[in-house]
Write a structure and sequence with these properties.
Blueprint (H helix, E strand, L loop, with lengths): L3 H7 L4 H5 L10 H11 L2 H6 L27 E2 L15 E2 L21 E9 L3 H12 L4 E4 L16 E2 L4 H5 L6 H11 L6 H9 L1 H10 L6 E3 L9 E3 L6 H15 L3 E3 L2 E8 L5 E8 L3 E12 L8 H7 L17 H8 L4 E2 L4 E8 L8 H5 L3 E3 L13 H9 L6 E6 H6 L2 H7 L4 E3 L2 H8 L3 H17 L19 E13 L2 E2 L6 E3 L5 E7 L16 H22 L1
Parallel strand pairs: 1-2, 3-4, 3-11, 4-8, 11-20
Antiparallel strand pairs: 5-7, 6-7, 9-10, 10-11, 12-18, 13-17, 14-15, 15-17, 16-17, 19-20
The structure holds (2E)-2-methylbut-2-enedioic acid (MEZ).
Length: 562
């Protein structure tokens, strides 16, 4: 110390002021958090008082518990710093992020007489997949426990930016956008280099419109549509004004799960899948922040714990050339679910298929959404020249950037593009954008030759007018870049998505190495392989979480009833 608790004591508060008369501490830290709010007001109220340039109490992570960052009897640590690099003072805090270990604790022997909770279905991971599965299974009459090892729910889904791909939606029809399920299937297969599981891709495309309707019925806003790389039509659904999709949908899902009183447990890491000795899954072993080891006995287990982009050792194991690269992922994306399923006998597919996203802000973990390019931005190198079709697939765009001097490039756009996409304001807020009143002014600030940059923009604007990009064959150029001010963000590729994972069938059952389903074990989302093959198209990930999250919830509920 001294810690936050000491400061409270100095103010005359005793232990029960924060911990209640029962002094009970569950893994959600329910009592303490409600005591914080009782004295200090809600997160929104605290945010109103903030004078900081970056208001940590008002973030895209939604309404979080106070104890996510503030600890009573240990160093406080800002959750934001897991991804950001702000100068952020936190009372009794360390300027460091609390990040989970990238490896699961090894359990040699499970102690006898452990507390055992009982449920129908236990779900590992509270991102979009886990929430979609939990709500669906609950609505089919199953009792559900949703586990999340991080102190907040939302996972990587919460960070999803560009959109959710779906075809033949009501919203597309209203906007007069021509698209079809077949076209989405073809684009996805082509994007994945024809190595995806065609059956799973058919489901993704066919159920995508219903997934958008379902989310909308739960209160999400998917009313804007943009176009992302590798898509033959505008099908990336996102909130109005082009706001980020992830925070909007995960907060709607969370609210719906809470309204249904689903048992959501944060700070709760599943560390082993339990089975009966005959191959049937019977539950999980959990390590809770306060409850320590305990068991949950369940009729079905759903793995929805995402991929492993934030596990640098594993990324380098499968792709040695990606060693040391930054990532766009939240620190919890360490691949626990894949590891747990593997240890339970599940087969793995496509593990070497790791996607790097071309545009992560240089020196950070902040993804600059592909939608900035989708809405018209171009990429230029240090010579002030374009070097690639900006809307090509991510692997090709990333390879092109890594081939430039400095292994980075500049995303260049203007006031018109800025106005077209609400997410861009966030990059200004985070100080990631360099602005110039003229092209020459911008060029000077980012140290590229002004004449080259001017020539590049004038050639590009001509291509926009002629609707033909002879230089790089960019298929879609929705806006020219000629309205001051002019802007640039330095970007470099970062590990973004792991395409491989547990092998599943069309009912989201995990397949064993002998090709048969493991009874009681289900999986969906990024921790499964087969949907994206060798390369995932932007916007297909959120679609996968909802389409297969609903399927896995339904399948597991059916299985649990048998
Ligand atoms: O699906 C994605 O990964 C995506 C659209 C990312 C982004 O650039 O916004």
């Amino acid at each position: 110390g001294p810690y936050l608790a000491d400061a409270h004591k100095d103010k005359g508060l005793n232990c029960t002021a924060c911990h209640g008369d029962t002094m009970e501490v569950d893994d959600n830290e329910t009592l303490v958090n409600s005591a914080c709010v009782k004295c200090h007001g809600s997160l929104a109220k605290v945010a109103e008082k903030s004078e900081e340039a970056v208001n940590a109490h008002k973030s895209h992570l939604g309404n979080m518990n106070c104890t996510v960052c503030h600890a009573g009897h240990a160093d406080s640590m800002s959750y934001c710093l897991g991804c950001h690099h702000f100068d952020m003072n936190i009372p009794f805090g360390k300027v460091a992020a609390r990040v989970p270990s990238t490896t699961l604790p090894v359990v040699k022997e499970i102690p006898a007489n452990l507390r055992t909770d009982k449920t129908d279905i236990v779900i590992i991971g509270a991102g979009a997949t886990g929430f979609a599965a939990a709500i669906t299974a609950h609505d089919r009459g199953a009792k559900v426990i949703l586990l999340e090892k991080m102190p907040i729910t939302g996972g990587n889904s919460q960070l999803a930016a560009g959109g959710m791909n779906a075809s033949e939606t009501r919203i597309q029809k209203e906007k007069g956008i021509k698209d079809s399920v077949d076209l989405m299937y073809e684009d996805t297969m082509k994007g994945g280099k024809n190595t995806s599981d065609p059956g799973l891709v058919k489901i993704l495309a066919k159920d995508s419109a219903a997934a958008v309707d379902w989310l909308t019925s739960l209160g999400a806003d998917l009313s804007d549509v943009g176009r992302l790389g590798g898509a033959s039509a505008a099908r990336a659904h996102r909130p109005s004004g082009g706001a980020a999709v992830g925070a909007n949908i995960t907060q709607a899902l969370k609210k719906n799960a809470e309204d249904r009183k689903i048992d959501i447990r944060v700070n709760s890491r599943a560390i082993k899948i339990l089975e009966d000795g005959k191959g049937r899954v019977t539950g999980v072993l959990v390590e809770g922040k306060h409850s320590k080891l305990y068991k949950i006995s369940a009729k079905a287990v759903i793995i929805a714990a995402g991929g492993f982009s934030a596990n640098p050792e594993r990324v380098a194991y499968y792709q040695p050339t990606f060693k040391g690269m930054t990532t766009s992922n939240q620190p919890g994306a360490t691949g626990d679910g894949i590891h747990l399923g593997d240890a339970a006998g599940g087969d793995l597919v496509d593990m070497k298929q790791i996607q790097i996203h071309p545009t992560v802000a240089a020196g950070s973990r902040i993804l600059i959404t592909e939608a900035v390019r989708g809405n018209g931005a171009i990429l230029v190198n240090r010579d002030g020249r374009r070097f690639v079709n900006e809307m090509t697939t991510r692997d090709a765009a990333s390879a092109a950037i890594l081939a430039q001097t400095g292994k980075s490039a500049f995303l260049v756009f203007d006031e018109g593009i800025r106005k077209s996409l609400r997410q861009i304001e966030g990059y200004f807020h985070l100080n990631l954008v360099t602005a110039g009143t003229t092209i020459a002014d911008l060029a000077a600030k980012i140290k590229v030759p002004a004449a080259e940059l001017e020539a590049t923009l004038s050639a590009y604007n001509k291509a926009v007018d002629e609707k033909s990009d002879a230089a790089f064959k960019r298929p879609d150029m929705p806006r020219s870049i000629k309205t001051p001010r002019f802007y640039a963000i330095e970007i470099m590729p970062g590990v973004h998505y792991t395409m491989g994972g547990l092998k599943v069938d069309a009912n989201a059952q995990v397949m064993a190495k002998d090709g048969k389903p493991i009874p009681g074990l289900f999986a969906a989302g990024e921790g499964t392989g087969g949907v994206h093959g060798a390369n995932r198209l932007g916007g297909n990930s959120i679609t996968q979480t909802i389409v297969f999250g609903r399927i896995v919830g339904e399948s597991a509920a059916k299985f649990a009833k048998q």
